[in-house]
Design brief:
elongated; 6-stranded antiparallel beta barrel; mainly beta; two-stranded antiparallel sheet
Length: 117
């Protein structure tokens, strides 16, 4: 199951490099959630898989207008500290946080992500 990775850089096809703060992002790749289904006998216990979407949560320096970043279908390239490279095609903004102290939060979802390396 995929875990959270430290995001060090995000590039948008619509907006270019996004102004994320240091330690300002987490990424959860798409995958599957497994729910255990117990059987009357231990050997009859199994699981059911449900697909899960990709999530990217970022904290930006407020050097851009938050309203300009709302999008229904952007392609994001995510670079992680462990050397991972992922893409989130057709990503949409989910939640736009409030401006405060020169920063704001934004969250993107995508039906699927793809690991590039």
């Amino acid at each position: 199951m995929a875990g959270l990775s430290k995001v060090i850089r995000v590039v948008s096809t619509e907006f270019g490099e996004l102004p994320i703060q240091a330690d300002g992002g987490t990424f959860k790749p798409s995958g599957y959630k497994r729910e255990t289904k117990d059987g009357e006998q231990a050997e009859n216990t199994h699981f059911v898989e449900t697909p899960t979407h990709a999530e990217l949560k970022l904290k930006f320096n407020a050097s851009v207008d938050p309203q300009s970043l709302t999008t229904p279908g952007d392609t994001l390239t995510i670079y992680t500290a462990d050397g991972g490279l992922y893409t989130m095609p057709n990503a949409w903004t989910v939640d736009m946080g409030e401006l405060g102290k020169g920063e704001f939060d934004i969250e993107y979802h995508s039906a699927k992500s793809q690991k590039l390396q």
